[in-house]
Structure formats: C-alpha cells, structure tokens
Amino acid sequence: MTDKPVLYSYFRSSCSWRVRIALALKGIDYETVPINLVKDGGQQFSEDFQTLNPMKQVPALKIDGIVIGQSLAIMEYLEETRPTPRLLPQDPQKKAIVRMISDLIASGIQPLQNLSVLKQVGQEKQLPWAQKVITSGFNALEQILQSTAGKYCVGDEVTMADVCLAPQVANAERFKVDLSPYPTISHINKALLALEAFQVSHPCRQPDTPAELRA
Amino acid sequence: MTDKPVLYSYFRSSCSWRVRIALALKGIDYETVPINLVKDGGQQFSEDFQTLNPMKQVPALKIDGIVIGQSLAIMEYLEETRPTPRLLPQDPQKKAIVRMISDLIASGIQPLQNLSVLKQVGQEKQLPWAQKVITSGFNALEQILQSTAGKYCVGDEVTMADVCLAPQVANAERFKVDLSPYPTISHINKALLALEAFQVSHPCRQPDTPAELRA
C-alpha cells in the first residue's frame, strides 16, 4: 500500500520540472507517471488523462486524494501542507515579489512558447517567435532581479521564483536565445544548477528521458 | 496626504479588471492611473512606466511602499494583508482548486489571446486564433467547474477563481466565442455580474472608459 504522491510528468516539460524541483527541495517522495507529449500524437490527449486533467497538460499531481493541475497551484499546495523548507519568504512584501517573478515566467513567458502554441505558429516561424517572447520576458526579468537578487532571485534563499527560473533558462537555451545580455539571470541559474534538488529533477535524468539525452 | 493604493489600469484589460474586482470586494479605496495600451503607440512603453513595471503591462499596484505587477501576485498580497473578506477558502484542498482554476485562466488562456500576441499573429488570423485558445481553455474549465461549482466557481463563496472568470468571459464575448457549450461558465458569470463589486469595476465604468463605451 502506498500513499505516495503521483506526478504526471514529461521529462522535457519546463512546468513539470518546476514541480519536480519543488518536490525534491521539500524531500517529498513520489512516483512518476510519464506522459509523452509527442508520442502517439500526444498521450495527454488520451481519454484517461483528460479525465484526470481536462487541460490535457502536464504536470498534474495526485496527492492527498485530489488531483491538482497547474504547476504554481501545485507548489502553493505543497507549501501549505508541507511547509518545510519554505519556498515563499515569510515577509508579505518579499512573498509578493517572489510570486510576481513566478507569475511573470508562468503567465508572461512560458505559455507563449509552449509546444501547443508553437505548433500553431508554424514550423519556420517557431524559433524567432520563441526567441522574441523569451527575450522580451528576460529583459524585464533581468531588470527586476537586479534589485531583488542576492544569491538567488529574491535574497539568499531558494524560492518559488528560482524554481520557475531554471526551467525557463533551459527553454531559452533550447531555443538558442543569446543569454549574454542577462548576467543576473545567468548567474542565479548557475547557482541553482549546482543544487542537488535541481540536478535530480533535471530533464536529462528522468525515468522517461530518452537514452540519447541522458546525462 | 494620502497613502491610498494606486492602480495602473486600462479599462479594457481583463487582468486590470481582476484587480479592480478584488479591490472592490475587499472594500479597498484606491486611485486609478489610466495607462492606455493603444494610444501614443502604447503608454505602457513610456520610460516612466517601464521603470515602474519592466514587463510593460497593466495592472501594477503601488501599495504599502512597493509596486507589484502580475494580477494574481497582487491578489495574493491583498489576501495576506487585507484578509477580509477572503478570496481563498481556508481548506487547503479547496484553496488548491481555486488556485488551479485561476492559473488555468491566467496562464492557460489569457496570455495566449492578449493584445501583444494577437499583434504578432497578424490581423486576419486574430479572431480564429483567439477563439481557438479560449474555446480550448473553456472546454477544460467547463468540465472542471461541473464538479467544483456551487453558486460560484468553487462552492457558494466568491473566490479568486471567480475574479478571473468574469473578465475572461468578457474577452470570450468580445472575440465572439459561442458560449452555448458552456452552461456552467455562463451561469456562474451571470451570478457574478449581478454583484456590486463586479459592476463598479466593469470596463464600461472606468475613469478611462471612452464615452461611446460607457454604460
């Protein structure tokens, strides 16, 4: 018998990676059910999965008898029910800044460069489209981080903002975005990738990572 | 001397409307600074406004000595610092569902049909593009709401999910989305629009609403 949380995840999905980082930071043991977003026309479109998450997206987390979709909602739930270590500062104003940065990435950048949008944009326009939305978001993010960052996005503790940042930088690299105009983002990302929670949850180290992409 | 919060808002922006509803529900008095997203090539691109919100987007709220961007981060801050009346249920599982629905709209629908994306899509493709993303999101939302809704999105109390819902339905109407497949969404929306907080905050009743659109 197990009551382990079950994470529906795709190795390459940056939103799935966010939740994997949060689970790792909090030391929560879980099972992974891989949902391949490209194989079989997209396993997220299967009837079984649609029943679980009508948005037909990963991640979704089955936990404590409910299924939660949307990575930030999942992280907020983990924060409420498994508060240690904290992913949100206690100070309400710092907390607001962490959530603002998280939302900037989760609403302002990632949705505009995800797989389903790029499909609609058309093959030859995908790369410039993705580069434009990431660059535009990173221009804002760099400016914000210059006044909020310590070792990480907001001060010297890892927060939800960092959990969103590293996967978005990985997307930027995948879309060949020039990161040289973003020294603060790059510096924080490097510090994050040195942490165990970001390493064990990395796309190159998941149960569904194809052999040729493993590291 | 005033310490009133200042809301940078555009009458038609659905994300600005979310914050106006939240402020009205909580009975928080505030000043509006209109930022016209189309006039003068977009006032959000002015140097002054970019300094305030590097994302060059409305809403932004100046409150308690800080400026917060991103509507959900703003609402979470209001909830922490002005908790009555609640916009989030106390039960962590219900709270997770409220946040999931809010994020579904705020990350999964609205960003894909906002002004800056539609500009990139090109004039003749704008309407079908917007209709497709809203329809796809509403298909999921209708299914979720069928099991969570009471009088409103989650049970019988107005929550952050409702604050996100009504402005998104207004966008759907503006893009001529057929709402007949969404009886639950439509029913909740009707109940919400009957509430004073949704009426005083409505796009047709703002300081910057053009005379011909006022009601």
UniProtKB/TrEMBL annotation, chains A, B:
GO terms for biological process, alphabetical: glutathione metabolic process; L-phenylalanine catabolic process; L-tyrosine catabolic process
- Could you name the Gene Ontology cellular component terms for this entry? mitochondrion
Please state the pathway this protein functions in, per its UniProt record: Amino-acid degradation; L-phenylalanine degradation; acetoacetate and fumarate from L-phenylalanine: step 5/6
Q: What does the record give under GO molecular function?
A: glutathione transferase activity; maleylacetoacetate isomerase activity
What are the UniProt keywords, alphabetically? Cytoplasm, Isomerase, Multifunctional enzyme, Phenylalanine catabolism, Transferase, Tyrosine catabolism
Q: What is its EC number?
A: 2.5.1.18, 5.2.1.2
Principal localisation: cytoplasm
Q: Which parts of the chain span the membrane according to its record?
A: none
**Family in the record:** Belongs to the GST superfamily. Zeta family.
Q: What is this protein called?
A: Maleylacetoacetate isomerase
